[in-house]
Each structure stands twice: as C-alpha cells, then as structure tokens.
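Journal club prep, notes for RB
We'll compare a predicted complex against what the paper describes. Inputs for the iron/sulfur cluster case:
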Amino acid sequence: MTQAAHAALGASGASRWLNCPGSVKLSEGYVRAPSRFAAEGQAAHWLAEHCLLNDKAAQDFVGQDWASPEGGLLVWIDQDMADHILEYLSALGRLRETADDFEVEERVTLDGLWTASGDKPPAPMFGTLDCGAYYRNEKTLTIIDLKYGKGIAVGVEDNEQLWYYALGKLLRLIDQGEKVLSVNIGIFQPRVQGGDPWKWSKVPAIDILMWGVDVLKPGAEATVKPNAPLVTGKWCQFCAARAVCPELAKLAVTTAQMEFDHKPPRPDTLAGDVIANILDRAFVIKMWLSAVQAYASKAIESGTEVPGWYLKERRAQRKWTDDGEALGALLSAGFKKDDVTVNKLLTVAKVEKIIKKGGFDLNATFGQVITKTSPGTTLAVGPGHNPGSRFTPTDPGSDFDTGDDDETDNTEF
Ligand code: SF4
C-alpha cells in the first residue's frame, strides 16, 4: 500500500483548518490516536488499489489479515469488505474503460494556486485522490472518494475535502492544456445504513477554481498568521489538539453550567426548546470529554499517573489460525462436521448482490419472501445544525453568553 503521508494543510483536515485557522499551530506535535475505524478504511483502500493495479479479485483476500502501518492494528478482510470493494471496483472499471485519463490513488497538489504568481504555499498542500477520470470530449472530470466509515454519513455537497481533491486534479489538467467545464463528485460509502451508498454532486469547474482562489488560498495563509484564531465547531471532533485546546475546554465548561438549581430535571417535564438546548450542550461536553479520556489513556500508557485510573486489558478475541486445519483437528478428535460448522442462507443484502449480477431485481422477484423490519431510530444532529453555535455570543437565540469570540457556521454534520 502507498503509505499515506499527512500534510498539515491536507485535504482531509480542510474543513477543520479552514474554519479554525489556529488549529494547525496548536496541533503541532499531536497525532490522532490510531483507531480501528481508520485502520479498516485504510485496509479497504489498500484492497481496492491492490486489486485494481494487479488485476486481482477482492474475494481472494477474504480471511487474510491486513496490518495498518500506523499503530500496527490488524484488520481481518471479511466477505463484506470484499463485496463492497467489488462494487466499488466495478464502477471504477467502467470509468477506466471509457475515460481519456484515468488514475487511482493519485497524489494531487495545490501548489499551482501560488506558483502562478511566483509564490509558494505556506506549507505543503497535497492529498491522495482515490479515483479521477477525465472525459475530453465532454470536458468533464469525475472524481470518487471511497469512505469506509459506518458511523457518520458523509455529505457530498460543498464537501471541502472533495473540492480540495477536485481542485488539485483540475490544476493538473489545466496545466496540460485541458479545458474542463464540469466536475462530477462522487462518494461511495457502502457501510452507512439506509439510503444509497453512492452520492453524487455536479459542480461547474469554474466554481471550484474560484473557491480555490477566494476561500482555500486565503484560508491556508490565515493558518500561519500570528495569533491565528481558535474557532470551535463540529470540526473539533477530528482535531488532534482537542484535549489541550483552551477554546474547547472553555466552551465545555461554560456550557456545562446548567440553570436548573443544581438538580437535574425530569426529562418529561421539559419543553422542546429546553431539550434541544440540553442536547446541544451535551454534544459539546461529550466531544471534549472523549478527548480528555483519549489523552488520559495515552498519558497512563507512557507512565504518567492519573490518580484512581488505570488501563484495563480488553478481552482477547479468539479466532481459528487456519479454518481448514482447525476443522481437521476437530474431526480427528471425533466431532461431527454438523456440530462445528453452520450451513445457512446468506443475508438478504448478500443475496441481492449475487442475483443482481444475473440481472434479477430482488424486490420484484422475491419480495414475497422478504420481511422488512425497521431497527428503530437514533438521535442525530440535523442537517445545517451546529450544536456549538448555540452558545456563541453571536447567536441571538442563545440563553448563555460565553463572552468570547467564537465563530461557528452551520455546515452539514
Ligand atoms: S479543538 Fe476545535 S477549536 Fe480547538 S484547535 Fe481544534 S478545531 Fe480549533
């Protein structure tokens, strides 16, 4: 796998550093702890790239472990991952056959925004574009980003990370004399429940180029200015400096000061706007508390004492080292095959993938043998709502003035 290098002003952090210019300096020396979710995403990207470039089938890797270069986490490549990557690669395969210019895992840079006027960017600015395909006759660029997370559904509209990639690719094509008119931006996020795993947005190329000049370039330069401001918002969730950020701590402490005479009220006695207020406060406090917990774990791991707290071993997960060998050993010991193996119908989602290839529509053909049950609902932050904004002095609806200069916007969560 191409080892990912991280730029301080890279694409994946664009939402954060554009909104909170001071985060770049404050994050120096801090790295986000390796997570299982990030490792799964890296493994999926590795599998896709490896299969595409070496003409391999994702299915052949099922059952193998993939070790993340950062943190050494092991990811088990399972059937679901192979199925998702198969769907992703079949879309990429169609682009590869028809596009005039096709690249995967392409490193794009934004240096061109500065070099045209003889300047250079304040820090290296690059990112890795999962897939880019250019159609010369149509003057259209298609870019695709593979997202393997399953917690937060990533929106495709006005997505700074994807616009960063598109801009880098556009600058290269323009440099080669191409005249691009429009950009199709796609996200494939197969593990988020409900809805289409593919999301698309079509944007005039000029809009992305103007955004580069009017927003991204001054935004990058703002990060190296003395006293670049710290600005809290939903982007704090992904900031490596969360545990040491004075602005986030201040916001958490002030929002924690509830106005209920030190006695929590019964939820069923509260009006809707009061409940919304409490949920907004809880969102900010939880964000800060989780940063403190992660920071404490790292501190204890490196020998710092946190009175009353320790790191407890997680329960080890067991799996057969080799399925065939294990089955052989069990049969030799006298167990029957039926006692230690299962033979059952695949899930509806897996069968749908298989029969789709044969041209069948699952619902039309087998709808009568399928029962749909909703797993219920889950509480979520609404589109356009930023819980942090409720407590800023600029919010006229706030019942709590922090007395600081927070600025937040309401981009989609
Ligand atoms: S935690 Fe939030 S406010 Fe603090 S530096 Fe990071 S992004 Fe900025």
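Talking point for the session: The radius of gyration is 25 Å.
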